[in-house]
# Entry
Amino acid sequence: MIDTIRRRWANAALWVGMFAGAGALLIAPDAARAALAQVGAPAPVFTLPSIDGRKVSLADYAGKYVVLEWWNSQCYAINRHYDGGAMQAAQKRARSSEVVWLTVDSTQPGHSSFVDARQTADMLRKWKATPSALLQDPDGRVGRLYGATVTPHTFVIDPKGRLIYAGAIDDQRAMRDVKKARNLAFAALDEARAGTPVSTPLTQGYG
# Structure
């Protein structure tokens, strides 16, 4: 199963994109040459600007669990999760348990679904979202490193800097009721914190 999904990611890397409801938002055509993150291996380190003007590095959070959530303002899946309050609940739970939640926007400037830092901040306020930071990755470099192909593609990194989960945010691909969904990122976090291996470290993202 894991090998099958990895092959799909490798093929998808030819046109890695953030899907935004109305169509695919291409990151860059050279994605096939990018080294994708591998579950069980060290997570690729990066530094990106946040919408509040800070420079945020993954290295800043060494020794902590980190969740990466890929984001696009017009993606129907993103809007469904935020309109339903599921993503905000997950972010609140993360912050209350000292888990860092980094939301990453790899949308290219000039695309119809691109929004600037001010507009993004307005959207987060409207939704009452509380990620630790929302990071901008306009050239898609970090998206390619992680093999993020959809939004919300989700990744979990442990305190040793290893990638322990990659895939869907939850088990509700049809999104019938996101509030009742089982959050797969937190399932991985809970198992890791209990000292047990993550039973499902890799799933196919949707969005």
Q: What stands out?
A: The longest strand covers residues 66-71.
